[in-house]
Design goal:
single chain, TIM Barrel, Aldo/keto reductase, NAD(P)_OxRdtase_dom_sf, NADP_OxRdtase_dom, oxidoreductase, AKR
Length: 328
């Protein structure tokens, strides 16, 4: 297994996205199971844990703080700021004051004095990028963060931020069925020497090949609002995923492992952070980091599921206002 560089550290190319234990999908696992998952992941060699202040209103950070912060030197820790979900107050706030306050609150929940990577979760168009980046640079100077990143930003804005203070990582959705970064961000990060961290690399679970009827998901599950999981779109996409599962079987891997291997094949600077609530699924995902699949298999997966073949947009219309990444 070849490790890759992130925030100046050599890490396993497949990290753990920690949203699922607290928010957005299905029901959160019991607290003890969430703690056990984090500890198991660390014991198994996972050395990149990614969370955010909004995941369960800080719950994901608190779980990490309880579960593994006694072994702080063994892993890279990333969290995020910027998205506001405070009652009727919703949107993005990346003002310097908000960044500073949010960072201190996250450090308290995480039970640590520093994070290795601190992302602006979305672009705040109301604040000059230089001001937001300035706050991040001051946090680096104070030793509270090792480096900063941005999430779902366009190539032009990444370049603007990088010119003020070097960007450590760009996090964005990237998978077989979400290719927006291929318009500009993938090449921009490669050119500038910035790590690209792919969230939802298994298509929010769809590309794992186990999802039957998204209409049966709990009412609060955000996938129920996403066009790709609805009606005729899902019927069409499920047919593609069934073919992907057959291809994975031919390669002797699972559907999720093929999906992750494809993402990692897109560049040596690319990392993936699939999320899960289950130890068995973590083990499956983690193993993909050491797999060397036949390029012909990856090419067939690429041709099977892509922006042209999938049905439906990745987000509902009301989510798009927060997305800066280039759109098809």
């Amino acid at each position: 297994m070849t490790k890759r560089i992130l925030a100046g550290r050599s890490v396993h190319p497949v990290g753990l996205g920690c949203m699922n234990v607290a928010w957005a999908y299905n029901a959160a696992p019991p607290h003890d199971e969430a703690v056990a998952l984090m500890r198991h992941a660390l014991d198994a060699g996972c050395d990149h844990f990614d969370t955010a202040n909004i995941y369960g209103a800080g719950l994901s950070e608190e779980i990490l703080g309880e579960a593994i912060m006694d072994r702080r030197g063994e892993f890279l820790l990333a969290t995020k700021t910027g998205i506001v979900t405070d009652g009727d107050r919703r949107g993005v706030d990346c003002s310097p004051a908000a960044i500073a306050a949010s960072l201190d609150a996250s450090l308290k929940r995480l039970k640590t004095d520093h994070v290795d990577l601190f992302y602006m979760h979305r672009l705040d168009p109301s604040v000059p990028i230089a001001e937001s980046v300035g706050a991040m640079a001051r946090a680096v100077e104070a030793g509270k963060i090792g480096g900063y990143g941005v999430s779902e930003w366009s190539a032009a804005h990444i370049r603007e931020a990088h010119a003020v203070h070097p960007v450590t990582a760009v996090q964005t959705e990237y998978s077989l069925w979400t290719r927006n970064v291929e318009l500009a961000v993938l090449e921009t990060t490669r050119e500038l020497g910035i790590a690209l961290v792919a969230f939802s690399p298994v298509g929010r679970g769809a590309l794992g090949g186990r999802m039957s009827d998204p209409a049966q998901l709990p009412e609060h599950d955000i996938r129920r609002t996403m066009p790709r999981f609805q009606g005729e779109n899902w019927t069409h996409n499920a047919g593609l995923i069934a073919q992907l599962a057959e291809l994975a079987g031919e390669a002797g891997v699972t559907c999720a492992q093929l999906s992750l291997a494809w993402v990692l094949s897109r560049g040596e600077h690319v990392h993936a952070i699939p999320g899960t609530r289950r130890i068995a699924y973590f083990d499956e995902n983690h193993a993909s980091g050491a797999m060397a699949l036949d390029p012909a298999i990856l090419a067939r997966a690429d041709a099977l599921i892509n922006q042209q073949t999938v049905a439906g947009h990745r987000y509902p219309a009301h989510f798009l206002a927060l997305i800066d990444t280039e759109e098809f």
